[in-house]
Amino acid sequence: MAKRKVDTENRGFQTRWESEYMFTKVAGKPVCLLCGESVAVLKEYNLRRHYETKHADKNKNMDMEQRLQKAEELKRGLKSRQALFKKAKSQGQAAVKASFILAEEIAKSARPFTEGDFIKNCMIKVCDEVCPEKRQLFLNVSLSRNTIAERVDQLSINLKEQLVKKGKDFIAYSLAVDESTDISDIAQLSIFIRGVDSNLSVTEEFLALRPMHGTTTGHDLYEEVSRCVNEMELPWEKLVGLTTDGAPAMCGHRSGLVAKIREKMQEENATGELTAYHCIIHQEALCGKALKMEHVMSIITRTVNFIRAKGLNHRQFKAFLTELETEHGDLPYHTEVRWLSQGKVLQRCFELREEICLFLDSKGKDTTQLRDEMFLCEMAFLCDITSHLNAINLQLQGRDRVISDMYSTVKAFKTKLTLWETQMRKENLSHFPSCQTMKEKLSTSAFPSTQLADKIGMLAADFRRRFADFEAQKSRLELLGNPFAVDVESSPPNLQMELIDLQCNDALRAKYAAVGAAEFARFLPGTMPQLRIQAAQTLSMFGSTYLCEQLFSLMNLNKTSHRSRLTAEHLHSILRISSAQSLTPNIDELVEKMGHHQVSPSNSNK
């Protein structure tokens, strides 16, 4: 015979038990109104026995009406205590949640953890003026340095757990890896992941920042990346691409990071081939050096440094420009690390060339070179071509960039270079406004169009050389960029049948026209599995290490000379929070995990 289960007997609490036995129902259990004890099994016999054993003598002289009144009074008292407890609990949870929210904002704004105390003092002062009766609620919010540090770590762990969970659904992923040095001369290895799930949704997030206190050889880099991939429980066979800054330790054929990861994938019996790229933006910046016009830039840099390096010269130059009522009131500095600054300096120097010469003359400086017509023509050309290079650089920057779009941008620029070279030889300066200005002002010598056209040809040749690895992937990138224009016969055999079905589907063609290449992949039907896998692999690829460079900027904002003792763990947590894009910390879940924790005012005033 099966054992009886009380839960299946549908026993219900009867209202009359409140006055007869002084019991009420709380959270599905009978609770004594007199002593607060609960009875495990909801049976009248159990309630009656409890009442007669413990409370019968106290209430034996009461009639039924008095019993009813007392039961109601006790119920009201119980509800009042419950409400008070719930209020205290909700206020405690609100205080904890507030500390999490403020900790997240402090991390995102690159503020030190001690800012929490400052914020709290400001909150209390505002509260005293606006709502003094709620002062205690604000005092209960703990924002001490230790609390903020703990909250930041918890937020970071929560984000990491979300990423690990998402990573389990990736059908393809790629990594972007770059290395830089912080204020304490510690090498920092930045790793980002771009993964694509079965719905072809892209997740692009910070994976890790690993400090490297010793050497930074290819083996050292591999050890850190490998440890990071294993910690995140990412399968090696789904790794599709690796984008680096192109340094020998990254790209060495035998002992570089790329070579080591390829060896690891072979050990893991991964069927796919790892595609390695040198950051597109970095290569584009290196292409500019093919012009070999350092002699022009060195003269301009010397001139700018003479004006800006000494405070007196700088003040007098600005006053001089104000007196002449020029459009611009100053000259910017140029630094090699900030690639776009060169174009801004060139443009400003060209526009203020006459004023600069007048100022240098007043200082007794030789301006023969700055007035030379050949130099001015080269300066005008460098100004224009750098402006074009800066424009493509800005186009390639940003988050969530699809590699096929970046390839199209580079491809278009190479075509433009061919056009500009042809036009320059014919002295057609439509796309070179500074050169056009100089040509109109030349007094004797002819404009050196042939020489400058050769410079454009050198730049075009360097673009072709540096982006040869992208040309090798041309068919793969075009398959994502415009699958309706791909030649089926030259495509891989496993894609040919699906490509024919796709190109003959008018509804999908209309959808492609409506949403564009990046979004269209998500609309590929399940009947085209090979195309979906191909699209996922291409979508997962990084075209640049832009996110790594952006992270290093955040790192330098946080780890300054005033915060040089910031620990690696705290720096890592801060950067995970401040760089998160598609993920947000689940603060409610964190508060729930902390249970009924409530910080006392004495602790929060530290």
TrEMBL record:
Highest rank taxon of the organism: Eukaryota
SUPFAM superfamilies: Ribonuclease H-like
Location of the SPIN-DOC-like zinc-finger domain: 14-60
InterPro entries: RNaseH-like_sf, SPIN-DOC_Znf-C2H2
Pfam hit, one: zf-C2H2_12
Recorded coiled-coil stretches: 54-81
Name of the protein in question: SPIN-DOC-like zinc-finger domain-containing protein
Alphabetic keyword roster: Coiled coil
